[in-house]
């Protein structure tokens, strides 16, 4: 069934002329936003909902109220083709469910009120609830209505329901099993001999530089890198176990890098990808080869064989991923660039008109401040989240600089960038009017978290991405700001990679050119086309080289 079929059903339904007009208009408006005719759009609620979630209403000039009204009318229209679950029920919650809800705190009560109201409407008392009832509710909210993000709603219900089962007397004693969508194959260290974990700890201590060993790494690894190395070693041990090696026989790191076991480990990972290598497999292979060379110190012949295997699995990539190139293509449009660069001001305008709670507006202001920094100084998310007023924002001669020491930066290239006046103006607005609402106690963090320290980078990144999408419809994570900066600049100044290198803090110009070669292809194409057009129209004289060729050829006969 398509939305065109739904329009036909609406027109035949027992509705007033105004109701028919509104529902048909909603369908046609949604179809236009989806870029297709109603007859070409599947009316399945779940598929339709997922397509609607890709639309940022404010980015296309629709208010939240208008968008909510459109979705509501769409839901009513779909009811003519199938049974739909109402977005909101007005059925009173039964007394038996109210007795239980009254025992919950505000947050739990809010999360479980909808499902309690649903069961009340269905005549299902607490004592009669089964797992089938719970799973049916999940299916109905995800498959039979248009409210956004029902999967997140269900996750919150599941988590709260299971806690309540354990802690509240009289609550239906039916737990909801949590589905683990990840395929787990990595064992804990406890599954292997203790000697292996002891050696792994020693290896990681050496990599951290803590033991001051002369043959330690030239540069101690950061905590995040050490965590990656630990996981790669545990993945390798687990791969051996899954490949048929008795776990009790995996006693030391040397067992990973014997030629036979090295092949078993890599074959396990390749089989999981139907024989195809990947970046992760290549990285594990290279890491184990390095361990074999510097920690286990295998003989030269074995090392040579390991190196050959590693080279066969390498997926060394130069340049930007295709996914990121796709995400940058909207910036070929000057209007998109302009809308993106005006985003902080758009957020400020939205906040000034908003009736949301002060804390919600403060978080939006926090995003505006973070975005304006990223647009002028596209630093990495970890450095952005940890900006400290006293440590990183330095005033010199009436100017403000963002200064981050080398040991705080991923590639150990220091950051020292002057912040433009427009950025300072947004930061001052945020710091004066909104940041105090977010501060819990004393804090010098520009983006304070709930405990007074800097906000978690992941949390800040998610909020930034959400705010960018809400106002522009662009799916951009904070790291992509770096690529956007490179593209915007190179579109205006094709080939000027050194400026981009310095802005992004790359150590080598080769890194910059490898990533951004082609990112400015649109601008280069326009420049080439203009030269060709000028030549065609005679605006540019023939080149000296061509004139020399003519003089040479004309002189041959003399």
* Helix and strand sequence: HHHHHHHHHHHHHHHHHHHEEEHHHHHHH
Q: Total domains, how many? A: 5
Shape annotation: globular
Strand order of the largest sheet: 1-2-3
Tell me the strand percentage band. Answer: under 5%
Structural class: mainly alpha
Helix share of residues? 55-70%
Main sheet properties: 3 strands, antiparallel
The CATH H-level homologous superfamily of the largest domain: Intergrase catalytic core
What's the end-to-end separation, in Å? 83 Å
Summed over residues and divided by their number, the pLDDT gives a mean of: 89
Query: Poorly predicted ranges (pLDDT <50, ≥5 residues)?
Result: 545-558
Count of beta strands: 3
Count of helix runs: 26
> What is the oligomeric state here?
single chain
Q: What is the CATH class designation of the largest domain? A: Mainly Alpha
| Gyration radius over CA | 30 Å
CATH architecture of the largest domain: Orthogonal Bundle
CATH fold-level name of the largest domain: hpI Integrase, Chain A
What does this entry look like structurally?
The protein is mainly alpha-helical and 558 residues long. The protein has five domains: 3-78, no CATH class; 95-167, no CATH class; 189-313; 333-516, hpI Integrase, Chain A, CATH 1.10.443.10; 530-554, no CATH class. It is 59% helix and 3% strand. It has helices at residues 3-12, 17-34, 45-52, 64-78, 95-101, 106-122, 131-143, 150-167, 194-208, 223-242, 259-271, 279-296, 300-313, 322-328, 334-341, 343-353, 358-376, 381-385, 389-392, 421-438, 457-472, 480-492, 497-504, 509-516, 521-537, 544-555; strands at residues 393-396, 399-404, 415-418. 24% of the residues are buried. The model is unreliable at 545-558 (pLDDT under 50).
């Amino acid at each position: 069934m398509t939305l065109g079929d739904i329009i036909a059903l609406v027109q035949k339904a027992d509705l007033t002329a105004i109701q028919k007009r509104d529902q048909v208009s909603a369908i046609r408006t949604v179809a236009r936003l989806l870029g297709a005719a109603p007859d070409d759009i599947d009316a399945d609620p779940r598929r339709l909902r997922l397509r609607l979630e890709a639309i940022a209403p404010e980015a296309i000039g629709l208010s939240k109220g208008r968008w909510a009204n459109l979705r509501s009318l769409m839901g009513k229209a779909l009811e003519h083709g199938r049974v739909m679950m109402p977005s909101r029920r007005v059925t009173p919650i039964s007394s038996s469910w109210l007795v239980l809800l009254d025992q919950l705190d505000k947050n739990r009560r809010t999360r479980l009120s909808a499902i309690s109201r649903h069961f009340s409407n269905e005549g299902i008392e607490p004592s009669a609830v089964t797992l089938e009832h719970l799973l049916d509710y999940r299916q109905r909210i995800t498959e039979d209505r248009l409210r956004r993000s029902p999967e997140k709603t269900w996750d919150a219900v599941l988590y709260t329901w299971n806690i309540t089962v354990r802690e509240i007397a009289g609550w239906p004693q039916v737990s909801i099993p949590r589905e683990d969508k990840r395929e787990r194959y990595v064992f804990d260290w406890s599954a292997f001999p203790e000697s292996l974990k002891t050696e792994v700890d020693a290896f990681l201590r050496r990599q951290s530089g803590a033991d001051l060993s002369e043959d330690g790494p030239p540069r101690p690894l950061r905590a995040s890198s050490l965590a990656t190395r630990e996981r790669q070693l545990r993945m390798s041990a687990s791969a051996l176990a899954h490949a048929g090696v008795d776990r009790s026989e995996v006693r030391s790191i040397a067992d990973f890098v014997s030629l036979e076991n090295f092949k078993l480990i890599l074959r396990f990972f390749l089989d999981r990808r139907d024989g195809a290598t990947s970046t992760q497999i290549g990285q594990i292979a290279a890491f184990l080869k390095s361990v074999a060379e510097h920690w286990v110190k295998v003989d030269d012949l074995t090392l040579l064989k390991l190196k050959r295997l590693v080279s066969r699995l390498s997926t060394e990539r130069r340049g930007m991923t295709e996914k990121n190139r796709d995400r940058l293509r909207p910036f070929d449009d000057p209007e998109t660039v302009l809308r993106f660069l005006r985003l902080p001001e758009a957020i400020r305008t939205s906040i000034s008109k908003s009736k949301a709670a002060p804390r919600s507006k403060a978080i939006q202001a926090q995003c505006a401040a973070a975005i304006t920094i990223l647009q002028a100084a596209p630093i990495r998310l970890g450095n952005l989240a940890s900006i400290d007023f006293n440590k990183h924002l330095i005033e010199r001669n009436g100017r403000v600089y963002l200064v981050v020491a080398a040991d705080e930066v991923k590639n150990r290239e220091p950051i020292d960038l002057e912040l433009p006046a427009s950025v300072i103006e947004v930061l001052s607005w945020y710091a004066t009017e909104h940041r105090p609402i977010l501060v819990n106690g004393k804090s010098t963090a520009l983006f304070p978290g709930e405990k007074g320290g800097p906000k978690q980078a992941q949390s800040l990144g998610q909020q930034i991405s959400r705010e960018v999408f809400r106002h522009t419809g662009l799916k951009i994570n904070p790291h992509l700001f770096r690529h956007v900066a490179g593209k915007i600049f190179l579109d205006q100044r094709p080939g000027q990679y050194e400026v981009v290198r310095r802005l992004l803090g790359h150590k080598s110009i080769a890194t910059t050119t490898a990533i951004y070669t082609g990112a400015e292809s649109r601008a280069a194409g326009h420049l080439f086309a203009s030269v060709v057009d000028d030549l065609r129209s005679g605006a540019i004289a023939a080149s000296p080289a061509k004139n020399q060729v003519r003089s040479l050829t004309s002189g041959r006969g003399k």
